[in-house]
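> forwarded from #structure-qc
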């Protein structure tokens, strides 16, 4: 039995059981002994252990799952859900940013504009994709594609998966904050349906730069936050090791975000995370996209803008109560 090369700390009890199963299976073959009952018992225990682990994950553990290197990335979902994807390049001002991709595609028989943040699988690809951290030209390319979608009346589907916009000197020199701010303003005014899904990491303004949409969806083990748990811990407690504590305080996981009204739907993942069954994760996303897009297509451009305005005006509301 082949075990995943990448092991999360909380998965170790599960891997120990899988080792036992493999050893017992090997003994059965070598000694020609029928051990079907023993094998079935361990398999049942593995399934129960997996269920126990993944139904009681802490916020920090869900962050780790969101960062799993085998987790499906944007292009994986695009290939699974769409046909005729035609990538469009460049912001027409500086260069093409490979960390933020986009283009036209067919989804469920309808032409759409797809915009996505893309990470790499290995070192070479991560360098090409800048570890999924877009620079200003990436956000300007995204805006160009959104305006193109508006011109041709194409719904916009965005895939969010970034630790944040690139904070390097060259990115700041080309005004990354301004590029993101313009996107926030212009996305609020788009006259076509827009849906965003957080498929992994949703970090800070880097995520929000393509996330001001009519509907925001999130996978069960993804996160969406103004800052990474490590960054929060370093600022508040001067110790990045306090990241688990920060993850709890930030309320950055899917269930918290749904309760607070930040996201509209939590998409369930296969047991063990989306990387354990990418096809099932893609099917769940397709169902969610189809439902929400059908609802949005019933609305006029004016209604879309009004509803979007109302949605974002109420985010972050809080009430003060007198101390007892």
């Amino acid at each position: 039995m082949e075990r995943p090369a990448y092991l999360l700390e909380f998965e170790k009890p599960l891997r120990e059981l899988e080792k036992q199963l493999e050893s017992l299976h090997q003994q059965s073959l070598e000694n020609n002994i029928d051990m079907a009952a023993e094998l079935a018992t361990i398999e049942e225990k593995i399934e129960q252990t997996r269920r126990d682990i993944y139904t009681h994950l802490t916020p920090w553990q869900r962050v780790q799952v969101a960062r799993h290197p085998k987790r499906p990335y944007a292009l994986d979902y695009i290939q699974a859900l769409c046909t005729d994807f035609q990538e469009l390049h460049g912001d027409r001002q500086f260069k093409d940013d490979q960390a933020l991709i986009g283009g036209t595609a067919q989804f469920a028989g309808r032409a759409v504009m797809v915009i996505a943040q893309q990470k790499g699988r290995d070192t070479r690809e991560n360098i090409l994709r800048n570890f999924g951290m877009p620079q200003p030209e990436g956000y300007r390319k995204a805006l160009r594609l959104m305006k193109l979608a508006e011109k041709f009346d194409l719904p916009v589907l965005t895939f969010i998966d970034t630790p944040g916009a690139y904070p390097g000197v060259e990115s700041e020199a080309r005004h990354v904050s301004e590029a993101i701010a313009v996107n926030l303003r212009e996305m609020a005014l788009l006259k076509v349906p827009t849906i965003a899904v957080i498929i992994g990491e949703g970090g800070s303004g880097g995520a929000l730069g393509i996330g001001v949409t009519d509907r925001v969806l999130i996978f069960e083990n993804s996160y969406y936050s103004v800052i990474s748990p490590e960054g929060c811990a370093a600022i508040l407690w001067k110790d990045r090791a306090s990241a688990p504590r920060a993850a709890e305080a930030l309320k950055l996981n899917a269930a918290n975000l749904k309760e607070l009204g930040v996201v509209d739907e939590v998409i369930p993942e296969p047991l063990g995370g989306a990387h354990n069954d990418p096809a099932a994760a893609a099917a769940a996303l397709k169902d969610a996209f189809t439902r929400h897009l059908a609802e949005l297509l019933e609305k006029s451009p004016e209604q879309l803008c009004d509803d979007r305005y109302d949605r974002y005006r109420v985010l972050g509301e809080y009430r003060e109560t007198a101390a007892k």
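QC bot note: The chain has 14 helices and eight strands. The first strand starts at residue 82 and ends at 87.
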